[in-house]
Amino acid sequence: MGFEFKIIEKVEKLRIDGMSCREIANKLGFYSKFEIIEIQKVLDSMTKAGKLKTKNNKYFKVREIKKIKGVLRGNKRGFAFLAREDGGEDLFVPHKNLYGAEHGDTVYCVITKGDEAKVVDIVERGIKRIVGTYEKGKNFGFVIADDNSYYSDIFIPNGKDLKAKSNTKVICEITRYTERSPEGKIVEIIGKAGEKESEVLSILKSYGFFNVFPKETELEAAKMQTKYTTNRTSFVDMLTISIDGDDSKDLDDAISVFKYDNCYKLYVHIADVSHYVEKGSILDKEAFKRCTSVYFPGSVYPMLPPILSNGLCSLNGGEDRLALTCEMTIDMDGNIIDRSIVKSIINNNYAMTYNNVQKILDGDKDLIKKYSEVYAMICDAYALSRILNKKRQKRGCINFETKECKIILDEKGNVSEIKPYPYLVSNSIIEEFMLAANETVAEFIYHLELPFVYRTHEEPDGEKMLEFKKFVESCGFRMEKGKMHPAKLQKLLSEVEGSTMESIISKVMLRSMKKAKYTIDNLGHFGLAAEYYCHFTSPIRRYPDLQIHRVIKAMLDGKLGNLTQLENWCEEVAEVSSERERAAEMAERDIDDYYKAEYMLKHVGEVFDGVVSGVTAFGVFVELENTAEGLARLDNLPKDNYDFVEKRYLLKGSKHQYCLGQVVKIQVLGSDIDNRKVTFKILDDGEDLEVENE
């Protein structure tokens, strides 16, 4: 037995590919017939064990092939890329190498050549339900997924289609996978494809959001009443106002501000949603499914039923409401020198709007007279907000001036106008006060060492920041050397303010940074240059805020219970809320893109000025003043031989070149509403106009 192990050990060290038994024996220094027979036995044993393979009496080593785990990202043309779990470069997987794996699946792949791979094992199916368009045949039907990444149509057998008609938007549940295509059944009919309501519903449902609440949830909400015990601080006689958008119905927050000789008193009153939505209730389970309200043009998918979100929980004007109040004493330099958090009851004297408050600050005499009771408070609130802002700027927080749009619909639900969202000084008052309350609450709980849900934003990755620095320098700007600090990034934004590069640099900076998320560990907030931060101020529309209200109230009432269970609960809320927040952002973006594509369809053939917002090897993206973005492909650029300079985001020709931030004149060639894409042509001086037929 010892001899056999020694031979195996020696064979494993040899390079034996393509050698016969006698050649291997000679290589090892064995020549007698007896020794060759023994080596033959060893080679047969190794072949049986899968360590060797034979061909034409020659032996070859079986090398272990490294499996690479990852998630498939599909393409409508039928191929996919493997996003590797180990962080390595993506691998290309041709359609012939997918072997029944679909977009979103977790798989093992092996490299076949270069950066090309094939699927060898499907670990977990990633997508179980799909929103798409149903097409009915004679004996069966199929669903074409709305998500272009899902490259397979889903086969629907007869009797599994809920009697849906062709060209209908549906939700399909996959029941079986085959190498040809998945098989499924229709579980919900959304509406006719192409109709606006159906298309918007399809987008929201594809991200897991719901437009109706179960009947039992509505019944539970309808029974709610404003009942409370006496252990609340009454602020009903304190002058209180809220400031929100003109069409806001779910009022989370209200404020009271008082100025003294050497300080301010700021009261931030936040709706006590946790009083009505108890942990584990039907309402709570439905709220946790959503984790956030989703806002889109003309409507909202609320986290809570409207009877609560717009009714009992909303701090509506002139009505007693339950709240959690964060009281802060702030000195003239913006330092919070004292604070407390109490359960309260308030009465919002004036539900005001950003527009009216702005007009008051601008000196509108009629509005000043109408709101004379709170005029002094509004002025004090503005002064305090400037003090808080100055302190934030001094510590180096980043002010991202991202270009948001306001999509205005007419009575029929069609887009009548798209314009940049107005940001007023009055908006900044509430922003500063909510930031102050969020930081104060986070610091307060952190020092009590209680389980909590923090809003965190980690320091950016060094390599990404280095790439961003190179990009900035290619645009003609410079960044300070040394350790990355938010103040350096804010200094850069201040330098580019007002230039055509402002929006572009701000976008690329955001992409270069890590995404803010919810965690149970206090990791600080890099963008705000804040050591402590949480989301406390919007419990009607965000589940993490509701969760931390429960923690605060349990602490105030002395009913914290099992801290390990509380920590596990907070951890689950943080993880799910981060995921649902990303889904809501993508849904809102896709809906905005749908409405923008619809709006631009009315402007086909027209000419606009725009700014280059993206440069690729296949064309140039241009953003218009109204925030609509379109692609001018290479054949829709002035004729030239173009080379793509990737590191400089530059498309360079002998006569023309295009770079980020460049102002160009475009003609709208077409708009594909179904795919939410707009096509542009970049015009050269004196070039004829044309219209693309789509």
- Per DSSP, the total helix count is 16
| Uncertain residue segments | none
On the 0 to 100 scale, the average pLDDT is: 91
Strand content: 25-35%
Taking the sheet with the most strands, its summary is: 5 strands, antiparallel
The total beta strand count reads: 33
What would you say this structure looks like, in words?
This protein starts with a helix and ends in a 12-residue tail after the last strand. With 694 residues, it is an alpha+beta fold. It has 16 helices and 33 strands. Helix 2 (21-28) packs across helix 3, helix 4 runs antiparallel to helix 16 (563-601) and helix 12 (462-474) runs antiparallel to helix 14 (502-512). The model has no long low-confidence stretch (mean pLDDT 91).
Supply the key terms.
single chain; 694 residues; alpha+beta; five-stranded antiparallel beta sheet; 16 helices; 33 strands; 32% helix; globular
Give the arrangement of secondary structure elements.
Elements: H1 2-13, H2 21-28, H3 33-48, E1 52-55, E2 58-61, E3 68-74, E4 80-84, E5 91-93, E6 106-113, E7 116-124, E8 129-136, E9 140-145, E10 154-157, E11 168-176, E12 183-192, H4 196-206, H5 215-222, E13 233-235, E14 241-244, E15 253-259, E16 263-271, H6 282-290, E17 294-296, E18 299-301, H7 306-312, E19 320-331, E20 336-347, E21 350-353, H8 354-361, H9 365-370, H10 372-395, E22 405-409, E23 415-420, H11 425-448, E24 454-456, H12 462-474, H13 486-496, H14 502-512, E25 517-519, H15 543-557, H16 563-601, E26 607-616, E27 619-624, E28 629-633, E29 643-645, E30 650-652, E31 657-659, E32 663-672, E33 677-682
Parallel strand pairs: 13-20, 14-21
Antiparallel strand pairs: 1-2, 3-4, 3-6, 4-5, 6-7, 8-9, 8-11, 9-10, 11-12, 15-16, 16-19, 17-18, 19-20, 22-23, 24-25, 26-27, 26-32, 27-28, 29-30, 30-31, 32-33
